[in-house]
Amino acid sequence: MRQQSPHRPLRADAERTVMAILTAAEKVLSSHPAATMEQIAEAAGVARTTVHRRFATREALVDALTAWATRQFHEAVESAHPASAPPLVALYQVTANVLRVKTSWGFAMSRTGTASDDPEVARVHAEVLDECHRLFVRAREAGVVHPDTDLVWARRVYYALIHEAALHRADDSDDGTDIDGAATLVVDTLLRGIGTGGGGGAFRP
Fold this sequence. Notes:
Layout: H1 12-31, H2 37-44, H3 48-54, H4 58-78, H5 87-104, H6 106-112, H7 119-141, H8 151-172, H9 179-194
């Protein structure tokens, strides 16, 4: 995406156009990863020249899409208040919020965990991982997970569960429904493996 001056934000109509292009790119590239700029423009309902005015190359468009998804990912975690909410509540809410992003922006999210040339994408991704680490530390301190749990391994299992839940949602439905059920399944599965056993059954928010 062409760099915008921080003192000259996009006009509302230009911002709507960019979002229409990014949304169309996500939808088209999810089904056809090799889709062209022309196909994305058609899906967005704009001329190909309009797409090229906003994004000089296909790579620039994909990079912008990845950056957008990364910001949504970060906001999904932050809005769950992982540093202040009760750890079990925060764990559930982070899971639900992240699943919503992953199911809505699956193509872009598949790129956020890879090495990026964009330092901002790399920084935000690292910050999210740090937030998750601190949440798991709080969960262990609160007795939500067993005190001798290997938190590195626990987080890897957690990320894998979220990934599989997102794939399951994508396979079963394209409308993003029942995210809460998927989040509960992830948290229940995680804690039955590393929980203290004192919860008296499956967690329900």
